[in-house]
Design a protein that fits this description.
With about 300 residues, the protein is an alpha+beta fold. The chain is about 40% helix and about 20% strand. The protein has 2 domains: about 190 residues, Jelly Rolls, CATH 2.60.120.10; about 110 residues, Homeodomain-like (Arc Repressor Mutant, subunit A). A hairpin with a 2-residue loop joins strand 9 and strand 10. The protein is elongated.
């Protein structure tokens, strides 16, 4: 069940940048980007200070990688007291379709003293894991991942080598590796960082996870509480009590929210017609679906088409 739910998470790099810069420097990120976007940063050479939108500071060294789920405006800088300059104010050269390079190096500084950073803005939607949204930390760090994903240190070593060597095609390789590392950081958080959430306990309960998997597999089925209880192999009362205890919502509320999230995805991202969406989700008519959608989300289905889910 955890695998199925993680497959619904949308974590997609939108704008990758290789940054080679001499100290002193101050880089500001997120000023011209949707505040809901995530940012990923990898340090391939040097030491960098990170200041998050809350004002908290962290020191990042060579080989460190961080994912900021709701990054907002944040800074990477060489030392205290330096002025910040928007990353968008730097001249950049294209590397590949989604990646570019920024070089701001002092001529009289040895290149081994420069800082090498690989950063990207990412579209981040928890999908089926939306009950965990309020638990997202300000920063997710790579430090706990290698103990559980032994292949990650090798990937980080490759990223460092590609950043430094600049071999042909390195831009494409770095974008793919950045996506892998960011996903590994997110997975580790889901596995361990949000254990306080009863909803995570729910998807780890084999019997209840079977019910959740069935709902996600057949969201358009005319589910009753009795059907769900039967799937779990318990009485209606035991099922309903356990479901509410762990998910903090009734079974029907969960099903309705699931359907509306699917509808938002199908309408906003896949541009399906309202007729097709209503049919897939088991509604007798578009009118019935539209009423349910407006009641649950506060918006009409048509308004979802105006939301740009995949803008760069």
């Amino acid at each position: 069940m955890v695998n199925e739910l993680l497959s619904g998470v949308r974590l997609r790099g939108l704008d990758y940048r290789r940054i080679e810069i001499s100290a002193p420097f101050g880089l500001r990120f997120g000023e011209d980007v949707d505040d809901g976007r995530a940012w990923f940063h990898f340090i391939g050479q040097g030491t960098v200070h990170l200041r998050t939108k809350s004002g908290a500071t962290h020191v990042l060294g060579c080989g460190d990688a961080v994912l900021l789920p709701c990054a907002g405006i944040h800074d990477l800088y060489s030392q205290d007291g330096v002025a910040m300059r928007s990353i968008d104010a730097f001249e950049k050269a294209p590397l590949c379709d989604a990646a570019s390079e920024i070089r701001a190096c002092e001529a009289d500084v040895c290149r081994s003293k420069d800082n090498l950073i690989f950063s990207c803005a990412m579209e981040f939607d928890l999908g089926w894991l939306h009950p965990l949204a309020h638990l997202k930390p300000e920063i997710m760090h790579i430090e706990t991942v290698p103990d559980h994903d032994p292949q990650i240190p090798a990937i980080l070593d490759v990223m460092t080598a590609e950043l430094r060597a600049k071999r042909p095609g390195y831009g494409v390789i770095l974008t793919r590796l950045a996506d892998v590392v960011a996903a590994a950081i997110l997975r580790r958080w889901v596995e361990t960082g949000c254990d306080v959430c009863g909803w995570v306990e729910a998807i780890r309960d084999p019997k209840l996870a079977r019910v959740l998997a069935a709902l996600h597999k057949e969201p358009g089925r005319s589910w009753s509480v009795a059907d769900m209880a039967s799937e779990m192999g318990v009485s209606r009362s035991v099922f309903a009590e356990r479901f509410v205890e762990l998910t903090k919502s009734t079974p029907q509320q969960y099903l309705t929210n699931l359907r509306m999230r699917l509808a938002s995805q199908w309408i906003g991202r896949e541009n399906l017609s309202l007729d097709e969406v209503a049919d897939r989700l088991g509604y007798a008519s578009v009118a019935a679906f539209s009423r349910a959608f407006k009641r649950t989300t506060g918006k009409s289905p048509g308004a979802i088409r105006h939301i740009d889910y995949a803008s760069p």
